Amino acid sequence: MTTISIEHTSRWFGNVVAVNDVSMTISPGVTGLLGPNGAGKSTLINMMGGFLAPSTGSVTLDGQPIWRNESVYRQIGVVPEREAMYDFLTGREFVVANSELQGLGAREAQEALATVEMEYAQDRKIATYSKGMRQRVKMASALVHNPSVLLLDEPFNGMDPRQRMQLMDLLRHMGATGRTVLFSSHILEEVEQLASHIEVIVAGRHAASGDFRKIRRLMTDRPHRYLVRSSDDRVLAAALIADPSTAGIEVDLAEGALHIQAIDFGRFTELLPRVARENSIRLLTVSPSDESLESVFSYLVTA
Amino acid sequence: MYNPTVARLTYRAVLGRRRAAILFILPALLLLIATSVRIFVGPDDQIAADLLGGFAIAAMVPLIGVIAGTGAIAPEIDDGSIVYLLAKPVKRSTIIFTKLIVAIAVTMAFSAIPTLIAGFILNGNGQQVAIAYTVAALVASIAYSALFLLLGTVSRHAVVIGLIYALVWEALFGSLVPGARTLSVQQWSLALAEKIATEGLIGSDVGLPLAVSLLLGVTVVATWYAGQKLRVLKLAGEE
Known about the structure:
Chain A has 10 helices and 14 strands. With 303 residues, chain A is an alpha/beta fold. Chain B has one domain (4-238). Chain B has 239 residues and is mostly helical.
């Protein structure tokens, strides 16, 4: 059982604070590191992977510091976000080299290539690979020594749905067999499908932690804002405000639209079409006006 | 200390890039000039010494050193692919030492061997000129490789700085300005050549004991420091 502990860790680059006093423990199983782009996920993963020193605090693997400690790589496998690989090698040569650097041989490399289903293209140059194929070969290079910890930075970027499903199955299996798997993503659905445990990071801060149901509840229970255009805005507004799922409505004459703040997401989504039908109002536009992930995250930070 | 896998990757990285064309062009140019001189002028010890000193040692060896020394590590640091070497239980000093060996081997192969052949073409190793300059090329290859490998770990502009050093400092100042000569790998290596060739044919501004100490010192310190830099190399994220 291998655990990564991050204790009161900060990391700054000049005047910019990328990670701000974060404490978390990554235990066996699959953990999703969720946050918008630029939140500090990569910085955190780089510190867990030993590629960046924490400015303050500590990042340890079963009590051993990770920074400047090459021996941790017997236990850690890393799948970086960066595209750059040894493009002049074939997939097989690349994975064999990674295997040799772990003190292993061609057999282990072949097994890793089979695990990621890349045997069919293993003798092609990496330069000719698609993004998804690169991702899978990177994955094979990280799995070659059967690590107890796997760190993946945005692993699903550029993968098609089938490859994504396959990688998810693989990671799920690794988590189920007691390995510590941590992956970062800025897509909630991705994390939700795979991770039993989620760590949310926003603007360098640790915003929330828990299972996906808890995170999902926090996200759906927050006030939602909608922009609605209809054939009769005032009648619709009057009918909606009578219901407790709606906290406020603004009639925007200039825009010719309603700005609605709903506090009960589930009930409101059921109420709106019903009220429209009952009052013979045509709904022309219904669009969430604050659905960007950043707004969800900023809500989480204050929650 | 030496890792064959790191070596294999490094050889392919150094020889596989477009830049590697220079590794072939410069020696070919040297051999072409040497052959022409031999055909049109005939064997002449002074011309042989001037050509090998002025072109092979002053320009070709440092330029090939830049390509091999920086090429052994800088592109991997630039594009981040070095992460696949660093995320392994391999000592950083082993990575640097192996890359140094590769850089030295490449620089020697592409500079010392052509120098030897050109020397024999020019005057059939008369006055030991060919051997003397080949020895100079061999020892200079070691020091340049270590220096430019270090440069590759400390600067993102390693090739440009290396080229400026090779062309401006070594080829221009190292040959012309007396003060600069003392701090020139070229002059240190010529101190050895001076002892081998017939007296008066090759000159160096640096005495042999000092030259050998400086060659050794620069190589050892540069290699050690490159290892230290690699230990704390920060791979910046995409953010």
